[in-house]
């Protein structure tokens, strides 16, 4: 599901509102600060986030069909974690600020400029909407430093599901080579 193609949303109804509420519930319960629909098995262009990470604190942001139209040349490294890779944190470089066009939960268009942690979370989730994962953006050295943790996750997946992992850690090296900032 994380690598599948995601579809734009055209219907702004009660089902969408319910999905958004369920995504916030999952995000807060799992100590997240952002969540994309493909992470909960729904392949559509939808993300929710709240950099405060606590219900009732900070601002809850919902972006439907977001488009990133400007990213700063200045980039920053940040020790990122992903809810789809529990317990793994590693440095990822991303533009410091971004400008976005999106729709809200009612379908109304809006523009927003983000910097700091909100810009970081947005870009992490926006990548999910394109099937790009944070491991694809790590340098070889950083990826090497978390290799054993990734392999542990693979083993856990295989023993729980009885299935081989859909993509192996070694394949990620090849995929990463194909992903540049130009794909944002
Ligand atoms: C810095 S972008 C991280 C976004 C990510 N969303 C989806 O995968 C996420 O919420 N990751 C969590 C592991 C995370 O960053 N949690 C916070 C708060 O607990 C943390 O600092 O670990
Ligand atoms: Fe993630």
What does this structure look like?
- Belongs to the polypeptide deformylase family.
- Its cofactor is Fe(2+).
- Its main location: plastid.
- This protein has a single domain (14-176), classed as Peptide deformylase (Peptide Deformylase).
- A hairpin with a 7-residue loop joins strand 4 and strand 5 (89-95).
- 33% of the residues lie in helices and 25% in strands.
- It is built from five helices and seven strands; from the N terminus they run αβββββββαααα.
- With 184 residues, it is α+β, with helices and mostly antiparallel strands.
- The chain has a five-stranded antiparallel β-sheet, with helices on both faces.
- Ligand LLCC2GWJ is lined by residues 31-35, 53, 80-84, 120-121, 124.
Comma- or semicolon-separated keywords:
alpha+beta; 184 residues; 5 helices; binds fe (ii) ion; 7 strands; binds ligand LLCC2GWJ; two-stranded antiparallel ribbon; Peptide_deformylase_sf
């Amino acid at each position: 599901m994380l690598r599948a193609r995601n579809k734009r949303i055209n219907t702004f109804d009660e089902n969408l509102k319910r999905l958004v509420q369920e995504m916030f519930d999952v995000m807060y319960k799992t100590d997240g600060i952002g969540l994309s629909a493909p992470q909960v098995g729904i392949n559509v262009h939808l993300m929710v986030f709240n950099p405060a990470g606590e219900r009732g604190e900070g601002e809850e942001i919902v972006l439907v069909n977001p488009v990133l139209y400007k990213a700063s040349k200045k980039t920053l490294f940040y020790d990122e974690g992903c809810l789809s890779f529990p317990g793994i944190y590693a440095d990822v470089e991303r533009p410091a600020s971004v400008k976005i066009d999106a729709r809200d939960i009612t379908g109304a268009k809006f523009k927003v400029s983000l910097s700091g942690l909100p810009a970081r979370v947005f870009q992490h989730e926006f990548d999910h909407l394109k099937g790009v994962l944070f491991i694809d953006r790590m340098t070889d050295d950083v990826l090497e430093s978390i290799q054993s943790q990734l392999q542990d996750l693979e083993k856990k997946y295989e023993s729980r599901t009885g299935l081989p992992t859909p993509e192996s850690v070694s394949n990620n090296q090849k995929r990463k080579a194909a992903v540049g900032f130009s794909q944002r």
